[in-house]
Amino acid sequence: MTKPLVRHLNAGNLWSLPEGSSVPRLETCDINYAAIKAEGVIAIQHHFPDEAVFNAGLLMTGMGRVLAPDQARAIAETQKGWSFLSSTWHVGTGLETDAEMDALAGAVLDAQAATGLPITIETHRATMTQDIRRTLSLIERFPELRFTADLSHWYTGHEMTYGDIAAKFDAMEPVFERVRYIHGRIGTPCCVQVAIDANDDRAFVGNFREMWQRCIAGFKRTAAAGEMLPFAPELLPYSISIGGQEHLLYYAQQVGNIDTETEQSDRWEQAQILWEIAKDCEAL
Questions:
Q1: d(Cα 271, Cα 264) in Å, to the nearest integer?
Q2: Which of 232, 205, 209, 84 is nearest to 150 (CA)?
Q3: pTM of the predicted model as reported, rounded to 2 decimal places
Q4: What is the DSSP string of 214-251?
Q5: What confidence tens digit (pLDDT) does each residue in 139-149 have?
Q6: CB 178 within 8 A of CB 218
Q7: Nearest 5 degrees, angle CA 161-CA 165-CA 170?
Q8: What's the rounded Cα separation, in Å, for the pair 135 and 141?
Q9: What's the pLDDT tens digit per position in 250-281?
């Protein structure tokens, strides 16, 4: 296995794109998923099935949140019924005891076994895997767990550059080799999502390059024959309107004054840059 990466895209990367974004659009201004497929994207990740995505010939993967063990099986069955290839889950709140973490982990594995839906637990803030040490301990108890690496949450949340970052990367190897999905996002030690340039050589970009290289190398060592590693940029907006209500996410940084604020970058173009970085990491 020499080229395992496949190109996915998280639906959030398409939400509330700034005016003037170069994202492909139809005459109705809706997203042109056929054109996105022509760019090389093979699947869209979303909480729900989207007929426009399927009609364009794209596949879909899922997302979900599990707060109690008895929720896992039903979510997996539903997403399997939607023909999702796999699903990424936020599991828990981060306040769990070890015993509660174990119950949730066991429920995820049981749901996967019962439905045949591959499920990865995301390394995300406000979940039971928000802490690196506790995640490593969880792996010791449940080595069969697999993960979606959204490493900006750890990089920023742990302020990983404060101390011996090389030693931290080495300690994270049990996670890296169990990564089966990557969310493409780059952050700094103090901001979880920032815009970068195509040839950006800032230190934090180099750190993400190394982490993604380690994920890909770990995947190559441990993946089953024929298994592929999706890389899905997930650059989220500053805010999104749902049902007429504005929901502030605060991910994309803003520029301008209070009356003219807009996102500082085109997240569609940024997603292309992240994909090119991922391909560079795969080649090493």
A1: 14
A2: 232
A3: 0.96
A4: HHHHHHHHHPPTT--EEEEE----SEEEETTEEEE---
A5: 999 999 999 99
A6: yes
A7: 155
A8: 10
A9: 999 988 766 667 888 999 999 999 999 999 99
